[in-house]
């Protein structure tokens, strides 16, 4: 399926610097998708293993303590920096920067218009504060059934309690399957 990369139309609505321009670079977009796939696979299998061994509470601990490390090991292997972010955060450390926030807001409004979240993405080449060109891409993360145990509206009391302890400012609950949960955000210096 062809991804919906809305580029030119959105650029004008962003808080852009003068040098910023929108792009559609298939090689970089495909590379980025490969990085996301690797991260999803690694995180997914770690989560599954922990769940089988120690239940959902153990799985939370994988997410909490290991997700950052896994993200880093994916990053070390490539020139890509990859993060997860959202407008409804669980961990405040995953807060979006200004660019990411603007894209997430666009994703929200696209979602409301019924866009297919599985293929919703945005990419752009921006110039950072030091004048370096960086390719940035975001890809929407839809909520799947298996996310509801920790992000849904009927979270088991023992899980809710653990989440409350680890993330007292948790805003990442109450989701339904198909909702926009957040996005992967990737960077590569050109
Ligand atoms: C076992 C519980 C659990 C399950 C299941 C789970 N998550 Fe999470 N999720 C967490 C925890 C804990 C964090 C906070 C991680 C951190 O500290 O960075 C989190 C963070 C996130 C974030 C980062 C943004 C933020 O709010 O901090 C995204 C995006 C996310 N989850 C999406 C998903 C999606 C999509 C699924 C289903 C495919 C899912 N999660 C399943 C527990 C879970």
Structure description:
With 190 residues, the protein is α+β, with helices and mostly antiparallel strands. It has one domain. It has 5 helices and 6 strands; from the N terminus they run βαβαβαββααβ. Strands 1, 2, 3, 4, 5 and 6 form a 6-stranded mixed beta sheet that branches. A hairpin with a 5-residue loop joins strand 4 and strand 5 (133-142). Helix 2 (26-77) packs across helix 5 (157-166). The longest helix has 52 residues, at 26-77. It is globular, with a radius of gyration of 17 Å. It starts with a strand and ends with a strand. Residues 6-21 have low confidence and may be disordered. Heme C (HEC) binds next to helix 2, strand 3, helix 4 and strand 6.
Helix-strand layout with pairing:
Blueprint: E1 4-5, H1 8-11, E2 21-22, H2 26-77, E3 81-85, H3 98-112, E4 120-127, E5 133-142, H4 148-151, H5 157-166, E6 180-189
Parallel strand pairs: 1-4
Antiparallel strand pairs: 2-4, 3-6, 4-5, 5-6
Helix pairs in contact: 2-5
The structure holds heme C.
